[in-house]
Every structure is written in C-alpha cells, then in structure tokens.
C-alpha cells in the first residue's frame, strides 16, 4: 500500500478576480475550496491513475472535517490523527498571476507525533511512504526522525520538501526526491544555469543517498538523474491555468508506475505535472492520458 503523509494539510481557498486593489474592498469572482496539502494532492492524483493510497497526517476542527469528507467522497482512504486546533486555510489568489498565502498551521503536540510514529511503525516492507510539504512549528527534525524509523524497518519512502529538512533524510536513502530548481540551487549553494549544472547538483544528492532525483523546472519540464541515467524532459505545450499541485502531481505520476521501466514512470510524472498545470484543479485521468504520448525524453550527454 502507498501511504502519503501530510503533516500540515490545508483547505485551499481559491479566489478568482481580475485584479486586487490593496487598501480597498475587493469582491471576488468565482471561489472554490479544495482538500489540499502536498501529500493529500499526491493521494488525489494517485487515485486518478487507479492507484489506491491511504492519507496520513494531522487534521483538526471544521477544516479537518472538510478534508476528510472530501477525501471520502472521492473514495480515498485516510487515517488522520485528530488534533485540537483547526487545520489551516491557504489562500490561492488567481488574478492575472497566481499569489499564494499559506498559513503556518495548527499546533501539533508531542503526543500527536508519537501517534504518527506508531502508525508508521506498523507498516511493512511492502509499503511505500510519500512525505510531502511543510513541517509544523517546533518539529523541525520530524522528517529526519520518521525517515530513520522507516529506514530501520526497511520501508521505502519518497520525500518532497526543501533545504535541511530534505538533506537530513538523504542518509536514510529516499527512493525519490523532487526538488524544483530553486530548491536545488538552495541545497547546492550555487546558481544552476545549464542542464549539465543541474545534473551535477542532482548527482551530488544521488551520491548522498537518494535513488532517484527529479528536478522540476516549471514550464521548462524536468531533469532526471539516478546512478544510471541523466535525462532531460521538456514540458508539453499548453495554457497555464494552475500551478498549485503541479509538483505533487509529478510525484504521484512517478510513484504510480512503480512496476514500469524508469522512462515510463518519468513520462507519467511529467504528464501528470503538466496536466495539472493546464487544469483548474488537479489533473483528471483523461487529461493525464492525453498528454502521455506527447512527452519526449532525451539523454543529457557530456556530464559524469
Ligand atoms: N507552465 C507550465 N507548462 C507546462 N507544464 C508545467 C508548467 N508549470 C509546471 N508544469 C509541470 O509541472 C511540473 C512541476 O512543476 P514545478 O517545477 O512548478 O513544481 P513545484 O515547484 O514543485 O510546484 P508546486 O510546489 O507548486 O506543486 C513540471 O515539471 C511540469 O511538468
Ligand atoms: O505550506 P506547504 O505545506 O509547503 O504547502 C502547502 C500547499 O501550498 O501545497 C499544495 C500545493 O503543492 C497546496 O495544496 C497547499 O496549499
């Protein structure tokens, strides 16, 4: 079974309007509410690809109730740990451009963390865990601790987070990491201009323990590196409608195809990311399948 872990889920409140006048009363056009948070988005896209998963993490209050109801209505199972405070609401403002305002999130107690550790300790080597998103205040080492727990039980995991939270898990050998270019530059401590620069920085993460590194480049596509291949995958062309969850969709596409050859997994990863970028919500199965035949994969030559 695939488990997604979202420490800090969110109700994503999408507000559409032509423009925002600061210091004045603005009235919205359409508004929408989604069950959000990175791991939850991964679960939603996995479902579109016909893969079952169970969403784990922390949920509380009326917003937590909305998330659970929404997942249930979509046939996605969950085993969230109930917390006292309300799950956060993140604002996604869609004017001519996209502006995101993400809340800090509710307090998570040490007891809540212990309950999550107990859940993870009950998994087996046939399971795969996907960690994604921000960490609750005061729990900066949570990813490191949980990755160690899984490593010691020989349970594979993938992780989509940034900076030290990501690098602290490399020693526990994540199956997939998915930094975007900005995050990879932050880890490498240098600007990465050419594809070969990106490959070199990604390969450093392979040497530090990651099995597969997928560096997403927004509308420019992605670079993929593992110990065998260095690949460049341009994005298919289309109209950008929504970049929220594009990265999460990419993770879902890669993990969904875990029985197939690496090129197929990458093809699905990019098709999922771009199909979400071209939709109002996360991509549907039909939108993903329509893009798959258009994804080209090229080798990057001239680098170690
Ligand atoms: N404008 C776009 N056109 C086509 N595809 C896109 C576009 N933006 C994103 N994508 C697709 O989505 C994938 C992930 O995008 P991106 O690099 O923005 O991820 P991210 O920064 O992790 O996103 P987020 O954190 O918002 O989910 C890209 O590799 C690409 O396939
Ligand atoms: O604040 P975090 O945890 O880093 O990101 C949360 C978030 O922006 O990520 C998802 C898109 O990737 C959204 O559903 C959600 O609002």
From TrEMBL:
Pfam families: PfkB. It is an enzyme of class 2 (transferase). InterPro entries: 1-PFruKinase, Carboh/pur_kinase_PfkB_CS, PfkB_dom, Ribokinase-like, Tagatose/fructose_Pkinase. Pathway: Carbohydrate metabolism; D-tagatose 6-phosphate degradation; D-glyceraldehyde 3-phosphate and glycerone phosphate from D-tagatose 6-phosphate: step 1/2. Catalyzes the ATP-dependent phosphorylation of fructose-l-phosphate to fructose-l,6-bisphosphate. Its EC number is 2.7.1.144. GO terms for cellular component: cytosol. It comes from Salinicoccus sediminis. One of its GO terms (biological process) is lactose metabolic process. This is Tagatose-6-phosphate kinase. Belongs to the carbohydrate kinase PfkB family. LacC subfamily. Keywords: ATP-binding, Kinase, Lactose metabolism, Nucleotide-binding, Transferase. Gene3D superfamilies: 3.40.1190.20. The keyword ATP-binding applies. The keyword tRNA-binding does not apply. It comes from the Bacteria.
């Amino acid at each position: 079974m695939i488990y997604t872990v979202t420490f800090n889920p969110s109700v994503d409140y999408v507000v559409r309007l032509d423009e925002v006048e600061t210091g004045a009363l603005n009235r919205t056009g359409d508004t929408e509410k989604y069950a959000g948070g990175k791991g939850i988005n991964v679960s939603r896209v996995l479902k579109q690809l016909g893969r079952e998963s169970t969403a784990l993490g922390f949920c509380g209050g009326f917003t937590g109730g909305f998330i659970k109801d929404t997942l249930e209505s979509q046939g996605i199972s969950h085993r969230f740990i109930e917390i006292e405070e309300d799950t956060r609401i993140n604002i996604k403002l869609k004017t001519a451009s996209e502006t995101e305002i993400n809340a800090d999130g509710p307090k998570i107690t040490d007891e809540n963390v212990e309950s999550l550790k107990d859940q993870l300790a009950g998994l087996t080597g046939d399971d795969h865990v996907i960690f994604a998103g921000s960490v609750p205040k005061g729990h900066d080492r949570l990813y490191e601790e949980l990755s160690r727990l899984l490593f010691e039980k020989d349970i594979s995991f993938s992780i989509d987070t940034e900076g030290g939270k990501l690098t602290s898990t490399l020693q526990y050998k994540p199956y997939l990491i998915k930094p975007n270019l900005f995050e990879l530059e932050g880890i490498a401590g240098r600007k990465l201009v050419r594809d070969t620069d990106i490959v070199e920085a990604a390969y450093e993460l392979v040497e530090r323990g990651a099995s597969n590194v997928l560096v997403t480049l927004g509308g420019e596509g992605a670079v993929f590196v593992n110990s065998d291949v260095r690949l460049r995958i341009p994005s298919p062309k289309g109209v950008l409608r929504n970049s929220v969850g594009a990265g999460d969709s990419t993770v879902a596409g890669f993990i969904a195809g875990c029985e197939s050859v690496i090129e197929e997994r990458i093809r699905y990863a990019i098709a999922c990311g771009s199909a979400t970028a071209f939709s109002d919500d996360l991509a549907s199965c039909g939108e993903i399948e329509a893009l798959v035949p258009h994804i080209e994969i090229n080798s990057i030559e001239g680098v170690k």
